[in-house]
C-alpha cells in the first residue's frame, strides 16, 4: 500500500470538495479495511495504472449525489438523472486528476481511467480484494466515502 499516495488522494479530494462544495468538507478519520467499503446507491470507480496500480471508489447515497450535483450545476435536480451521473463522474475525475498530477510531478508515473458511475445498491463485486484505506468525507450534503486501493509494482 502506497500510504504517501493515499494521503495525496485524500488531501486532494478534501481540498476540491472544500473549494466546490464549501468549507464544511472534513475527513474525520481514515481506516484500513480488508476490501473496499462500497455498496451504497452511487459509486464512481476510477482505475489507476502506471508504476502503481489500483482503484479509487467514491461511494455515496442517492440523496448526497443529487445534492452535490445540484450544487455543482447551480440548480436542484429532480433525482438521479444522466446529468447528475455526469456531475458525480466529473467530481471524482477532478479530485483524482489533481492527485495524479501531484504524484506525477514527484516523479512517479501514474494514469487514471475515466470514471465509471454505477447506481443501485451493492452492484459492485470485487474479484480481488486488497487492503483499502477508507476516508469518509463529510459535506453539507452528506458523506462521501473514498476507498483507495493502490499497490506499488516494484
Short structural summary:
This protein has helices at residues 3-20, 62-73, 82-105; strands at residues 31-33, 42-50, 52-60, 110-112, 116-119, 132-139, 142-152.
Please give the share of residues in helix: 25-40%
| Number of separate helices | 3
Low-confidence stretches: none
CATH class: Alpha Beta
Strand proportion, as a percent range, falls in 25-35%
- What is the makeup of the main sheet? 7 strands, antiparallel
The CATH architecture would be 3-Layer(aba) Sandwich
Superfamily (CATH H level) name? CheC-like
Radius of gyration: 15 Å
SSE topology string: HEEEHHEEEE
Shape: globular
Number of domains: 1
End-to-end distance: 12 Å
Mean pLDDT rating: 88
Structural class: alpha+beta
Beta strands, count: 7
User: What is the name of the CATH topology?
Assistant: Chemotaxis protein chec
Notes on the protein architecture:
With 154 residues, this protein is α+β, with helices and mostly antiparallel strands. It has a single domain, classed as Chemotaxis protein chec (3-Layer(aba) Sandwich), CATH 3.40.1550.10. The protein is 35% helix and 31% strand. It contains three helices and seven strands. It has helices spanning 3-20, 62-73, 82-105; strands at 31-33, 42-50, 52-60, 110-112, 116-119, 132-139, 142-152. β6 (132-139) and β7 (142-152) form a beta hairpin. The longest helix is centred in the middle third of the chain and has 24 residues, at 82-105. It is globular, with a radius of gyration of 15 Å. The mean pLDDT is 88.
